[in-house]
Amino acid sequence: ISPAQHRRLEEILTSSAEARSIYLDYLDMHAGLRAVALGQSEDQQMSRIVAMVEKEASAARRGSRGRAAVSHPWVAAVVAGVLIAVLVGWLLGKLSGKAPPTDAPIAPEHVATIARWAGVAAGETSIPVEGRRLAPNDVLALREGSAEILFDGGQRVILQSETRLRIKSGTEAELIFGRALIRADEAAGRFRLLAGDAAYVHRASEFSIEVGRDGTSALHVRLGEVRRERMSEDGKRRLSRETVVAGQARVFPPQAETGSPISFEPERFAAAFAAVSSVGTDDVLAEENFPAVSPDPVALVAARGAEFEDGPGWSGRWVVGPGDVPNILADQWFGLARNSLRRIPGVLSVEGQAVFHRRLARALVFNRNSVYYLGFIVKWDRTSGGQGGWFSVSLDAADNPRADPLTVGLWVDRQLVFARAEQAAVRRAIPLETGREYLCLVKFAGDEQGRTEVFVRVFSAEQPPNDVEPDAWNLVFQAVAPESLPDTVLFRVDTASRWYLDQLRLAKTWRGAVSPWLRSPATGETITTILPHPPHPRLVRNP
User: Fold this and answer.
1) Is the C-alpha dihedral spanning 261, 262, 264, 268 positive or negative?
2) In the beta sheet, which residues pair with residue 126?
3) Residues 475 and 458 in one domain
4) pLDDT tens digit string along 131-155?
5) Which of 223, 243, 275 corresponds to the end of one domain?
6) Of 225, 255, 254, 230, whose CA–CA distance to 240 is shortest?
7) CATH number at residue 516
8) Which long-range contacts (CB under 8 A, 24 or more apart) does 398-403 make?
9) Which residue in 34, 320, 402, 405 has a CA-CA distance of 20 to 30 Å to 74?
10) pLDDT of res. 238
11) Which of helix, strand or coil describes residue 447?
């Protein structure tokens, strides 16, 4: 469609919830066409095509009754379009089904990535490089330190020295000796770890295994279950099989059919994640967790001391406008896939119209080599009775504030994410719900022409971020580089309901920005009851 038609489509989707629903229905239908075409036999395909077209025609006729503005030619066009799209998908399936078979499937060249490492001294290989891709038969040998491997299928393997691991495929690895922690959620597929003389098969679980040089294996299962299998040398006959469930630990001597119970050690999981979670702290420029030192409102005010006056990377306190009363909710924290090692109670609560800001210790420099990442958790709660409202974060200069600074925000009830600067603006429709937590991650990157590109991605609890920067963004915006160097983070709220803000983080790398929200072994999803609390002592009124 033309640019003018595209703008008109955006206006319709922005103003009408019904239009958004219809549009998303057709997107879902389009995404499923090829699956429908390829997933059934020819007769089944044609039967389903006929049923889909009849259903669409019937729905279009019913919808056209009572709508004077909708004409029968329009209905016919929609039905014809659906029919053509489905038949094209069916034809693609037929053609792909006739393709000549290949001799063997082509194995992927790379199947895993070194996500991060700490204190590593290499064994027989070179020092691991973050972001380096690993192929089948690659061996990672560590004499000391820790390294985290992210498989393309979603499995995470953390190695602790002294360890040697061989990559077998995208779903299999061999722990020759040493200690490894393996973790995968429901989205990841089955994974096999060869260790000692057995294979450990798991899915959606978390376990630690240690293999001695004599072949003895010690298994600790924290989540899910792990199945140990011993096969004959030719791989055709199973010699033994044993399942170990969460909270259990076993030791398996070489050639043993069953294991002997040992004491379960949960601390080894925390130690493994702590070893890699500390990586990248130098990349963090500023961080604010709105910490609460006590769930008791009186003790909260009394215990606030100089140690809480300035968080890392800031210069001075948060400042709010006259009449604005943001509160700190000491008894609450958000469970949006946060790293349990960094769970800090305390959430900033804001209702009504409010503006508050805090100055950075160092100004941000925007040029062709500059890249900054800003992450924060927000939640909009309509249950307090208000309607509408938006939330935004801006980068501005305290000594030379702009009338329209670089700004990114969310408008939940209109299901929009937006960005603006210097009279230019862009907005995109995304599915947002009241009462849900969202992690907003913003990337600011300078280009060769002196402009600043803004990339925005919104994550939910069902889709938390990982170590790898995404290729797809919810919004991309190109702005003029600020004339003054931004040194202030500024928040604006305009709502009759309540907004919650937590864990603001400004960093120089993607991993530095997302590290508090990466999946962890002990993440809780419970949000405790919100109790009334006095204003945040660090939020001082602007005179």
Assistant:
1) negative
2) none
3) yes
4) 567 889 888 888 777 888 888 777 8
5) 275
6) 230
7) 2.60.120.560
8) 398/357, 398/359, 398/487, 398/488, 399/484, 400/483, 400/484, 402/482, 402/484
9) 34
10) 78
11) coil
Give the span between the Cα atoms of 541 and 543, in whole angstroms. Answer: 6
Place of tokens 């040029």: 367
Q: Tell me the pairing of strands 539-541 and 314-320.
A: parallel
Q: Do 405 and 479 reside in the same domain of the chain?
A: yes
pLDDT digits (tens, 9 = 90+) for 247-295: 899 999 988 888 899 998 877 776 666 656 544 445 778 887 776 543 3
147 closest CA partner among 138, 156, 137, 136: 156
Selection from 218, 212, 168 nearest residue 193 by Cα: 168
Structure token digits, residue 407:
């700004």
Angle formed at CA 436 by CA 431 and CA 440, multiple of 5 degrees:
70
Amino acid at 77: A
Ramachandran area for residue 255 (φ above 0: left; ψ -120 to 50: alpha; else beta):
left
Neighbours of 1 (CB within 10 A): 8
> CB within 8 A of 27, min separation 6: which ones?
none
Q: What distance, in Å, lies between the first and last C-alpha atoms of the chain?
A: 53
Same domain, 459 and 364: yes
Reading the block at residue 512, the tokens are 């530095």
How many structural domains comprise the chain?
A: 3
Long-range contact pairs involving 229-235 (C-beta distance under 8 Å, separation at least 24) = 229/198, 229/199, 229/200, 229/201, 230/197, 230/198, 230/199, 230/257, 231/199
Q: Is 507 among the domain residues?
A: yes
Query: SS3 for 430-444, per residue?
Result: CCCCCCCEEEEEEEE
Last residue of a domain, one of 242, 275, 308: 275
Domain shared by 208 and 91, yes or no: no
User: CA 41, CA 437: separation in Å to the nearest integer?
Assistant: 43
SS3 call for 229? strand
Strand partners, 122: 142
Q: Which residues form the domain of 12? A: 3-97
**Confidence grade of residue 525 (pLDDT, cut at 50, 70, 90):** very low
